[in-house]
Every structure is written in structure tokens, then in C-alpha cells.
Task: structure prediction
Amino acid sequence: MYKVSEEAVRQRMNTKVLYNGGFAICDLPIAVSSHCPYCKEKVVFKCHDWTGDPSKSISSNSECASCQEKPVFISVGFFQTGNIWFGRDLYIYPGLEQKRALVSDIETSMPENLIRAYKAAIDTYNVGLWNPAVVAARRVLEGITKTSLPKEEQNQSLYKQIETLSKHIDLELPIKQIGHSLRTAGNLGAHFDLEKEADIEIASIMFDLLDYLIEYIYAIPNRVKILEERITKEERDASQQ
Ligand SMILES: [Zn+2]
Result:
């Protein structure tokens, strides 16, 4: 479940809901602007067929106009003013994207001020401030390139900084290191030797590294492509307005 902010509610209506053998009149949202938990598109959900018990919770069916999946909206915390019930909080189920966490094991290798900027960016993302979040992510990128370049190259444009990055840090090295670590760790389980056995720590680090390698080679190029397609679409849409 994910809490929907009040600003996302585009339209409300007094709606009759079966209650105590009669009806309760409830002030309920009938149009809610939200990212779809299934396809992540931003759509306006029409909420209809509200059913439940206003002293507990009332839920509504809805359908995503983009992917036709059916998330549920749940209104809770009802209180009565006159003869109308008002819900305090609105939730969408299933929940939207889980909160993001910092990449682990960076404390000793990432500069302190860069960790602070990175933490600030994650916090902005986790409260759903998308425009400030993308700006903060770009700032972290600037921090990464700057702290990796010698002083005389730090004042170039971000484009140039990215282009010269590979001259100063060996971008190939981490991938080679992952490959060799996986190769040698894999030998531990391959030969019967009571002195050299794998355990859960070795196996879980190994599978983490395997994930990174697969992500780097297979998943990242696809994600970059998806992001570039979205940027092109946003620019095209903006130029047509
Ligand atoms: Zn959808």
C-alpha cells in the first residue's frame, strides 16, 4: 500500500455506500492522478464502486487507462460531519515503487561530502519530489566526475568531464576484478577440500558480484535506452505544446 497525497485527488463526490442496512453518504475521490503501480505511467484513475464500512475502510475498483491493470484505492480514517463521512487518508494497492536505499559499503571509499549529496538526493527521491530528485541525481554525477578528475580538469563542462573520466580512472578495472573474483571464489566449491569451503558469506558476496556483472553487461544498456527514449518523448511532447 502507498499513501496518496491529497493534491493527487482531482475530483470528489458524495457517494452512497451500503452501511448498517441503509446507506452512508461518503465524500469520496472519483478521479485520482497517480503513477500506475503496474506500468508506472502517470494516469488519472477513475474510482468507482466504492464498497466497505465507513467506520473501518472503503475500497474502490479502478483501471489504468494505459495498461488496463486494476489497482485498488482504499480510503480510511473516516469521521462524520453532519450526515457526511469524510475519509482522512487514501491509499493505492499495490504500492508504488519501494523506497530507495543508499548503495551499501561506500563509507570508506566515497568522499564524505559526496556521500552527503548522494544521501540528500535519495531523500528527495523518497519523498516523491521528482524534479528536485533528478536535479540532485545530476549533482551527484557532477560530484563523482569532479572528485575523480585532477584539479585542472574540474572546471570543464560536465560533458567534457564525463568524456575525460576514463583517462583518470580505469573504468574497465572493476569489471575485470569482479570477473577474476568470481573465477577464484568459484574454485572453492569445485574441489573437495575440507580446508577451503564456501560459506554463506562467500556465496552471498559472490552472487552480489554476479548480479553487478549481469546488470552491467545486460541490464544497464537496456535501462539507458529506456531513459533516452523517455527523454526524447518528453522533448518531442514539449515542442508540440
Ligand atoms: Zn498501468
The first strand starts at residue 2 and ends at 4.
